[in-house]
Write a structure and sequence with these properties.
The chain is α+β, with helices and mostly antiparallel strands. The protein has 5 helices and 4 strands, in the order ααβαβαββα. Helix 1 packs across helix 5 (90-101). It is globular, with a radius of gyration of 14 Å. The chain starts with a helix and ends in a 5-residue tail after the last helix.
Length: 106
C-alpha cells in the first residue's frame, strides 16, 4: 500500500529537488519483483543483512523494519523522522511535509 501511495504521488514528489526511495530487509530479488509488480518508479533498497536498518534504528525485534520516513537535507542532516507513517497516505504526507520543511522545488 505504501509503494502504491508513493507511485501514485510521483508527479507531486518529483516536483521537489529530491531523491526518494524505500528500503526493505528483503533480498534484492524480492524487492526487484515487488517493484516491478507494483510499477514503482523509484528504487527499493535491499538490506537483507539488516545493517542499514539497524543503523537507522528502525529494526524491530522480530527482524522487520518499522515504516518510518526520514527527511534528509542536501547536507545529510536528518531534518525530521516521521514515526507515524501511514502507508495509504504516504505519498501525500511526504509532499506535504517536504513543503513544510522548505525542500526546494525543481
Amino acid at each position: 500500500m505504501q509503494c502504491k501511495a508513493l507511485r501514485d504521488s510521483a508527479r507531486e514528489i518529483e516536483s521537489f529537488d529530491v531523491a526518494y526511495f524505500m528500503a526493505s530487509v528483503d533480498t534484492l530479488e524480492d524487492n526487484t519483483a515487488f517493484a516491478e509488480e507494483h510499477a514503482a518508479g523509484f528504487p527499493i533498497l535491499a538490506d537483507p543483512e539488516k545493517e542499514m536498518t539497524s543503523e537507522y534504528g528502525v529494526l524491530m525485534g522480530a527482524g522487520f523494519a518499522n515504516r518510518w520516513t526520514y527527511y534528509i537535507g542536501s547536507d545529510g542532516t536528518i531534518l525530521k523522522i516521521d514515526k507515524e507513517t501511514k502507508p495509504a497516505t504516504a505519498g501525500k504526507d511526504l509532499t506535504r511535509t517536504m513543503e513544510e520543511l522548505g525542500f526546494p522545488k525543481v
